[in-house]
Each structure stands twice: as structure tokens, then as C-alpha cells.
Amino acid sequence: MSSVLVHCFLRQSLCVPTILEHSSVTSSSGVPPNAPWQASMANERAFQIRKCLIPTKFNAGKIRVIKGRRRMISVVLRAVLTTDPTFKLAGKFILDENSELQISIGTSTQGSSFKINIQVKNSRDSLILHWGGICHGKKKWILPSCQPDGTKIYKNRALRTPLMKSGLESCVKIEIDDPEIQAIEFLIFDEKQNKWFKDNGENFCVQLKEELSPNVLVPEEFLRHERKEKQNYTPEQEKVEYEVSPIGQLEEIASAVPIGEVEQQAKLTKSDDNSKAEEFYVLENMSMIPDDLVQVQAYIRWKRVGRPNYSPDQQLKEFEEARKELQIELDKDGSLDEIQKKLTKGDIQARVSKQLQNKRYFTVERIQRKKRNLMELLTEYATESVKQKLSIPSNDPTTVEIFLNAKVEQDGGPILNKSTFKLGNEELLVLVTKPFGKTKVYLATDLKGPLTLHWGVSRKPGEWAAPPQSALPHGSVLLDSASQTELVERYYGDPPCQVKFVEIEIGEENFVGIPFVLLSGRKWRKNNGSDFYVDFGLGAGKLKQGESDGKGIAKDLLDKIAEKESQAQKSFMHRFNIASDLIEWAKDAGELGLAGIFVWMRFMATRQLIWNKNYNVKPREISRAQDRFTDSLQNIYKSYPQYQEILRMILTTVGRGGEGDVGQRIRDEILVIQRKNNCKGGMMEEWHQKLHNNTSPDDVIICQALINYIKSDLDISSYWKTLNSNGITKERLLSYDRAIHSEPNFRRDQKDGLLLDLQNYMRTLKAVHSGADLESAIGNCMGYRAKGRGFMVGVQINPVAGLPSGFPELLQFVLDHVEDKNIEPFLEGLLEAREELRPLLRKPHDRLRDLLFLDISLDSMVRTAIERGYEELNNDGPQKMMYFITLVLENLSLSSDNNRDLIYCLKGWNHALYMFRAGDDGWALYAKSFLDRSRLALACKAEQYEQLLQPSAKYLGSLLGVDQWAVNIFTEEVIRAESAASLSSLLHRLDPFLRRSANLGSWQVISPIETIGYVEVVDELLAVQNKSYGRPTILVAKSVKGEEEIPAGTVAVLTSDLPDVLSHVSVRARNSKVCFATCFDPDILSDLRVNEGKLLQLEPTSADIFYSEVKDSELSETSSTNLKECGPSPSLTLVRKHFCGRYAISSEEFTREMVGAKSCNIAHLEGKAPSWVGIPTSVALPFGVFEKVLLHSSNQAVADTLETLKKRLKEGEFSTLGPIREAVLQLAAPPQLVQELKNKMQSSRIPWPGDEGEHRWAQAWMAIKKVWASKWNERAFFSTRKAKLDHNSLCMAVLVQEIINADYAFVIHTTNPSSGDSSEIYAEVVKGLGESLVEAYPDRALSFSCKKSDLNSPRLLGYPSKPIGLFIRQSIIFRSDSNGEDLEGYAGAGLYDSVPMDDEEKVVVDYSLDPLIIDDNFRQSILSSIARTGSAIEELYGSPQDIEGVVKDGKIYVVQTRPQM
């Protein structure tokens, strides 16, 4: 649009300050008193404005023009022009940061002409004045007859006059003697920089006639307000309106069209001070551009910026801008017909009409998603692969190794080298890492006595050189060509062992290794007579070749791949043909074989392997080889559905291959581009030669870089930015067999043709190299036939048959919304397309490969869209974030095998959304449980990938010479490329909000003990559980599962993990007076890690922990002593029990001399517990039965073996614990034991296993032996050692009970363990058997508390997030019952195993169907019953109790109770 009125030149100079100036002062209504639309309040003197509105409404597809009366504004002139012949300064403008524009005006001595002096200070020498005259009643500039020297006429529309350079100034003088010219307008153009200077977006204007002096600019913000029907604005809205108000644009300036024409009608009014002023009515001429074209242009603008949702006000702005753009085109000697043809090509007009008919213009359309049963997404081909239980390493690491591993964990860098040297009976271990680009060397040994490291550095192997001063550890002595450093002594492990170590940070210098010897006393220790030498980089960052024990990999296949690699490096044709030859071998090797192929292909795709080596191959041959390989993959996909996930992963690393000779067109069409656009030399010729020699996926990136270069108006930095961001450097361009040396250097007249042709050429490149590219994948499925322009001519791909109804329209929706800023509709379209596609992927199809590539491209686009949508999420609440989580979970489920847990997570999030929308106060607590479960599901998936892929990556990488950094991060980068990484990010963003909404805080304090200690950071509590710290230590542990021991000397354990409050480690922490807490805030955990080595004081409350650094002096001798005493008193003793003469006894016969507290307590409950509490019938194998069985003649060999192993154990050979357990399992059952146990079980109405066959008794006998063997499990053994208890005096009875196949299991503490509140019960509940609770399966149980004074009002503290429930057939359980489990002052409970006769079935739990979760009344009833049970049993014993029980069909059963520790 054109502006109104002539711009009054220099408002500061010619006009007094007016109400048009903005101020921060506001009226009582919140609107600035000097806002344009409040002018009438400030002054009644005004100019009346009338102007046509830009349309705000639609009617029958047309814009309805609305006219209206305008409010008045006023301007009073201070002065006009003078008749003094000397020039008067009219005003100054700042053009840029260095240049200033000054304008002076005057008249001739006769007064017949005007003179204007235009001067630019600190100017360049390339300035041009672009100008013309304004004559009332004429639309365009007129060209004055009097023109300065050098003036040229521009398109018969304007004059161009160069400014004359003089020193630092440029100037031009203009004389106007034409009486018709009432003003001049101008702009200044910097020709060298192609830059225009203007006056706040408009032409500069100099008024020459006095009668025009009142004609000031009507501010655009005023007109915009008037068009919006005079709505009131807040100060913030007014600011926005003012900022967007300038209507001049660069194209308008360049077009040399005057800003506007006006019609004036004068009318006098009186002002407040009775002075005279003029009032004008201004009318704008109607544009000749049809409204339907404005609509189309507005739609194009809207689509260009990503289809944001516009408010009505923003829609109005868009129409204004669209009309202006069309006016510019029209003024550039264009015609309406040409503009209409350009705008309405294709189906764009139909799309605009559709938007108008739906009344959703400027609002993103959405697809209607179908209602589906989420369980239809279930994909299960194998047994449950999620490893839930903790595994104990079979090979115990040495103390030195554990010590160094703990040190290395802290810096987080990759281990570049690990070298172990034997020094007699001792060892020397050296680890080299490289965190943050700096090389670190850790050296540790268990050598005794004083030890000095005599060392140097090498720039090449064998060299001794003095290390730089910056690398010397504290206390080092620098010699001529070496340095000497004393090793620091530490005590580590359990029992404490002396370790000496030193840490050296070499920095970033170019050293390759470290030579050294050791001085032990007066003796030099060497490596078999030679100096020790440790290499930093293993040969320029490569792995040692072929190191593998063959476990977890298809070793023979990987060896064959390595053997073939030299041939594969010749070209992609060779590589894909070799892969095709090996794929059957890989399939026969199973998942590990296919994982090996994936690792190889990904090393290729990430440019870790050579793509082309001295071999010229035609693109069509590459395409044919790809076609062969991907065809083999699709055939395996059809026949072996259990491998579908890994096969999809392989497909992501290769292109589709081509049909209809598509590959050859890469060669042919680059010639077409060069010929048509006359660009046969330079970079284009070099690229042409590369394409002819050996095309690769790099060519897709190069083509995109050229497109971006053209789109950026030939900005070469855009070209390099595109290349570098995709991993292509100058060095890589030069490394091609046909190197690319040159940069593109296109002419401006080549831009349009090259842009169109390169965009078409991109389709050809992607058809071969980018199978997972969305546009290419859709094209291959929907079919296309290219005609004309030399691109893909004659190539015809038929549509895939059997596509669902409406699927083409759905894919078109996806393509149309790829760049939308509002990603929600786009995500919905992607997921709906994948859901529609899924049935076709589950059955044979002749075009399965194309469907797979389409599905992979849709999957990949979800991750891309989510990353683009983070900014949108920043401005939205939790509902949007939770909805996005459901979409990403759905996407991940569609791509994963064994996805039951993911689907149940998705169902849980859907219910969380329902609760949020329904206003349920518990929505945040419920959502938090599924956030934790979703995180665990991701962790399990990452662990599966790590186990499947990383061993092959490590082994094959070593064979192929792959950089170690690429091997180290291999699995991590695979996961990062999937939507799992997007889900993790969304969960991380939502977590703090949920914790705040659910009032969870940053901590869950399990054991609130105030303490002081030194911070030590470890990865796993398990790895240090057998250590003994020599000073009070606060452990910050990433992983705590729940079954670990707390190391001696530990005063606090702080973790990000989620152990149950009633897990064994939690109980032991409370009993040992160790502070124990989970931290949910990663920033707090990060800060704690930063404080490693510092002395901190912890001050916990029931829901928070405050910590502060204290000085060493503040750690008093008394507190230090107390903190070190984590274990029980040494005075505790175990009384050895003896065989009572019977192999089995009934519950009526239980005594403290025959059985442990567990059996005695359950016998005490029989007949005394309330009638509504069930107590299972029990029998037992009493103390001494194990020893008696060992003495039986049939077990003599086992007894001898055990005696030998126990002697070695007593001597400190802890590795014998495993063999001892294995020996126990070899025991044979004496016939008398079998008969007595059978009689007791049958008389107690417990089913006898042998009635179902001898194999069932064999299962029962094995379970009994496993209970006995658990006396020697590592956790229990080291616990008794630490407590200074005689392990030989520990005796094991076995409690035998029938298993109740429970709906739920629970554990009750009748005194709240976190707060110590004896008036409050705390309990945890799990689905199925209680072993998932007491054996520390990952994540949280349902938790609640209940006041004993109000047992009908339990308070829910947390919903369950455990993904696994344990269920079992009707069976028998054999429970450990030792004489040490409930020893007063010793937390021995749970150290030994209880073993069911049958294996439990691990079932992934669906909480969305569980009445305990979704039915408030049912939950209230069950939790109240559990609370009443706890209260009744505590009353029965008269002391706080730790109770285990189950719920079956609503009835409560208690299976054991013991005093709460």
C-alpha cells in the first residue's frame, strides 16, 4: 500500500513536539495519554482522516472493504521556510553508525527558486541520490528540468545524481525552479554495498511550498488502530504496534515509486488557546489489485513463515503486507495478468478457497486422527529381554583396578589405553583418558614401601623428554630430561588394602606416550629389564587390533567383513555387493550377525570408512548394487519378523537404489544443468567430474549447499555453513578421487535457472542416496512420472498398490506442513501416516522396501519436528508437553520390537492427560510415576542397544582402524538419532514442573541423619560396597538398586536412582544411622559432584537436605569417630546352633533353638492375629539340617570340596564364594529328610511336590539347597565380615510355606521410617508377588502413609512406576531363616535368599487397567485394610513391626513379621 500525505521533512526541526511522540506515562485506563488514538483528549485541533480499510473479514471468497470515520490528530507548525538567501540547517539524520546526513534549504535572491544542499559526513565514495519532485494532483514523481551534473534518468521515473566526494564528506546541491513542484522526495543509495538509506522506512521529503506545510505524515500506527475499530491497547501492545508500523520496504524504495498520493480538503477549527490551525480530510486512492490475489499472496506469506496461528490483528497485518508486495511487483513494470499467472499456478488457489470455506484462514488445519486400540501396536517376538535383576560380576576386579576405575569415572573421558604390568605378586595398572581434550594418566599399584615415579614424556616412541612444568603433580622434582614424583598412599577396599597412585595431566601438547621406571626404596623396578612405556593414543587414536573373546559378537562374520574391507573401499558398488553376499550369513548368525552388518554400514555412513579408492564406477552401477542389497534386506524382513527392528536400522544407513536407470541420470543430468546455465568450468566442472567418477551421499549435501548459496543471494558463507554442518570440510572435498578445489561463483543472471535445475536434480540424487528422505520416500510410494526440463525424463515409478483410502491426501498434508512452526498438527499427521502404514508392513508386499523407507522417513521426521518445537513448548503448560510425550511414545512404539512396556507407558500418559483435563488433583503425582517408568524404559532400551551393538562396534572398529572416539560413542549416537532421545528430552523438561505441582520437592529423604563427611563420587554403589573408607565419606552414586551393602566409613549415600524406601539398602541405612536420600534435581547433583573431595555438612529434614562446606577443623575427634563407626558393636556374637535330631518340624514345634525369628514370629501369629488376617500354614527344616546332610555318606565328596574352598576363603581368597555355592547345589537329599519333610507338609495340609512326580521334588530340593547356599553370597558374607561376626557360626533354617498367588504384595513399617513418627504407618504395595519389592526390582512401588488414629484415611504418597510384576503358578516357597538375620543391633534382614520351587513369571504391568490405580474407592478400601493390619500386629507384639504380606481377592494375608529396625 502507499502511504498517506507527504512526509513532513524533519519533524524535530519544522514541527513542535506533538502528541505523536510516545511516552511511558499512562492514563488510568492503562493507555498512554499521548497515544495516537487519544489525540482528541489532548487537543481538539485535529486533522480529520478518512481512509480505506484493509479487509478483516471474508465474504464469498472476496475481501469486504469497510470504510469508517477516523478520530482526529493535530500538529501545529513552528516555522516553515525563510526567504533569507543563506542556507538554513533543516535537520540531521544518522544513516548508520558512522555516517550523518545533513540537509539545508534556502531560496535564491530573487526568490524564484529553491536550493537544497544534501551533505553526508564520514561517507563512502559510492553514494547516489535517488530523487524526484512532488506535484499536487499527480501520482508519480515528476523530473525537474534543472538537474545537477552527472544526473541520469532512471526508467523515466526518477533521477539519479552522484554525491561528490570531498575529504570525509559527500554532497550534492539541487536547485528547483519549477513552480509546479511543491516538494522533493529522495533516498540515498550506496552502490557498492547495494544498500538503501531511508527515513524510518519512508522516503525523505523536503517541503518547498508554504501552503503545504500543514501536510504532515499521518502515522501508520494511528491508521492501524483505526482499522481495528479503535480498540484500546495496553502499553505493551502499543509498543508492538509502533514497532511494526513503518510501511516502507526495501523493494518499494528500489522501485522508485513515490510513497503516496493524497487528496486534501481543508477545514479550519479552533484550538484550546484560540490559535488557528488547519484540519484536513485525507482519502487514499483505492488499489487496483484484486482482492483474491491479495488473499493468495497472504497465504503464500503465511506458508513461507511456517503456518503460525495468527490472531485477527495479525491477519490484518498480513493482508497489508501482501497488498504492498503485490503493488511493488506491479510497479516494476509488471502486469496484473503476469502476477496472477505467477501466483495461481498449481493448486494454490484451491487451497486458499478451501481455507476460506472452512473459515480457518491463518489457522493450521489438522487431520482427524482415528480412534485405535493401543494394544494393536504390540510387537513381541521373543521372551522378555529387559534385565530387571541385579547381576553380580563373576570375575572380581582387584583393589587397584576398582580404585583406578573409581578415579577415572570422575573425569568422564574415554579410556584410550589400559596397561597392566605384573611386579612379582603385585600389579601396576596404568589408565590413559582424554576428558575435554586433555590427556590424563592414572597410575596405581599395591607395591609396598616408599615409591617414586621417575618419568618423562615422548613425542615419538622411545624418546625421553622432560615433561612441561604445567604437567607436574604437586611435589614433583624436575630433572634434565625427566621428573620424579612420589606416589600418594591410600587405603582402599574391604579389608582395607594399601594403594599407591599418582595422577598426571599432560594437557593438550603433542605427546604420544610416557616412559617411566619406579624407584622402590633403593631398588629400580623395570618392565622385564626395560623401561615401562604407555602409549597415549594407541597409534593416532586407533584401537588395538582384534582384541575380543568372541562373546556378544558374530566373530567369524566380523572377521570376514574386515577381510573384505580393502575391496569394499573401491566404491559403493563394491561395498553394497559385498554386503549382499554376506547378508545371508548374517541372518543365519541371528541378531548378532545383523548387528554386525549394521555396525559396518554405520561406520560407512558416518564416514569412518573410505568411500572410494582409485576406482571409477558409474552411478547406475552403484544404484543397482544398492537395489540388490536393500532387496535382500526386505526379503529377510518379510520372513524373520523378530529381526525387524535391527533391519530397519540397517536400512537407515543405505540409499534406496534406483529403478528405471535413475542412477545413471546422476551423470546425465549434471551435464544438462551445466549446458542450460552456461556454467561449465570451475566448481561445477569439478563436481561434475566427481559425480561421473563416483557419486556418494556427500553429493546430496553439496547440492543443498549450492541451493542455499543461491537462495542467500550468492553469499558464499551459506555454502560453507551447509557443508560444514553436515561434516564436509575443505579437506574432505580435496580428498575425493576427483577433488573439488574451487568455490561456486555464479553470476546473478544464472540464479533463477540454476536454482530451479538444482532443486530438480536433488530429486535424482535423493532417489539413489537418501532412501529415508521424506519427499523422495513419498514420491516413490505415491508414484511419479517426470516430463520435460531434462530431469528424470522417462523415469516412471508407479504408485504402491493397496494403500489405505485417503492415504495420498494424508501424505500431502505431511508434505505441506513440514516447515510449520506450530508442530502439533504436523506430528499428528506423521503419526497418523505411520499408523495407516503399519498393517502394510506386517504382511508380504511386492513394494515393501518403498513402504519401509517411507515409514523410516516419517519416524525420523518426528524427532526433527520435536527438536524444532522446543521453543513452542517453552510457552505452553504441562498439557502440551504431556501430549507431545504421548506422540513420541507412540512413534517409538511403532519402531520397536518387544514394545509392551512402551505401550503401557503410553496408556499411562493418556490417563494422566485425562486426569489433568478433568481437574483431578492427583494428576501430577500420577504423571510423575509414568515419567519415572518412561525413563526406565528408555534406560532399558539403551542397555539393550549397548549389549547388542557395542561389542561388535569395538571389535570391528579395531579390525578396521576406526577412530576410538567413534567407537566409544557408537551406541550413544545411534540412540541420539532416534526419537528415544527426543522423549528423554521431553521427560527432562517436564520433570521439574511435575515435582512442583505434586509438592514432591527436590529430595526424597529415606534416612534423615545429620552428618559431616568428605564427598566421593561413584558410578554404582555396587562397585564400592566392599570398600572401607578411612574417613567419613558422603557417597554421591549414580546407581543404587536396593540390594547393596553400604561401605564401611560411609556416612551418607545420595543418589539420583529410585530405590524403594523399604528396600534392603534403605533399611540398612536407617539401622546404621547413615543419611540416605534420592535427589530429583540434576543441578543439585551436579553441584554435589563438583564438591568432590570437600568436607560437607548435611542437614536433612523429612523432605529436603541442606548442605554446606565446612572446614576440616570443624570435624571434631568425637564426631569423626562416630561417623566411622557405621557397623554394629564388635561385642555382637552369633551362637552356633546344633541339629535337634529332626529333619522337619511343624509350626507348633518352632522354638528359638530350632528356627530363626522369622519362623517363630509367624507361628506366634497363628490363632492370635485378627480373624480377617490370613496366616499361611508353615513347616521348617530346622537349624543343623544342612550340616547333617553334609555329613551323610552320599555327600562326602561335596564335604571335602567345601572344606578346601572354605580354607581358601578364610585366607582371603574371596573368589571362592561362587564355587562354594556351586558345591552346595551338588548335595544329595538323605532319604530320611525326604520322608520327614513329606510327612510334616502333608499333615500341615501343604501340597507335597513329589505327588506331581519326581521332577517336582527335584525342583523343591534344588530350591532348599539354594537357600542354604545363599549363606555364601557376596553381600551377606561381607556384611558379616564388616560386623565382625563369625561366619562359621551362622546357621540356616528353612521356612516352608505354600505360595499365595497374590494380586498385590505389601511391606508395612508401623513407624514411619523417613520421619520416625510412631503415630504414622508407612507401607509400599506392588502388583503380584512381594519379591519385586523386597528384591529391589527397579523403580518405585505404590506408597502411602496412614495415621493410626484414622486408619480409614490413608494418604497416597506415590503411584507405582515398577514395570515388572512377578506372578507364579500354585507353588511352594522356601524362605531363609538364619540365626543372624534379626540379631539386635545388626541389619541382617534380607541378606539371604528365599527361593520358590517354580520360577516366577515376569509380567509387564499395565496400570491403566489396575483398579488399585484407577478406582479411588477400591484403593481406599485396600490401603485401609493394609493399615489396619499393621496396627493390629504392632499391638499384638507391643513394638514397631516390619511386616510382609499379600492381598488375594481383597483378603489380607501376612507371611512374616519381625521387629522394625
Task: Write up this protein.
With 1461 residues, the protein is of the alpha+beta class. The protein has 47 helices and 51 strands. It has a 7-stranded mixed beta sheet with strand order 31-35-34-33-32-36-37. A 7-stranded mixed beta sheet has the order 39-51-50-42-43-44-45. A hairpin with a 3-residue loop joins β9 (152-154) and β10 (158-162). α13 packs parallel to α15, α14 packs across α30 (923-960) and α40 (1196-1210) packs antiparallel against α41 (1217-1224). The relative contact order is 0.05.
By secondary-structure content and strand pairing, the structural class works out as alpha+beta
Number of strands: 51
State the distance separating the first and last CA atoms.
83 Å
**Beta-strand fraction estimate:** 15-25%
- Taking Cα atoms only, what radius of gyration do you get, to the nearest Å? 41 Å
Q: What is the overall pLDDT average?
A: 79
Number of helices: 47
Largest sheet: 7 strands, mixed
List keywords for this structure.
7-stranded mixed sheet; elongated
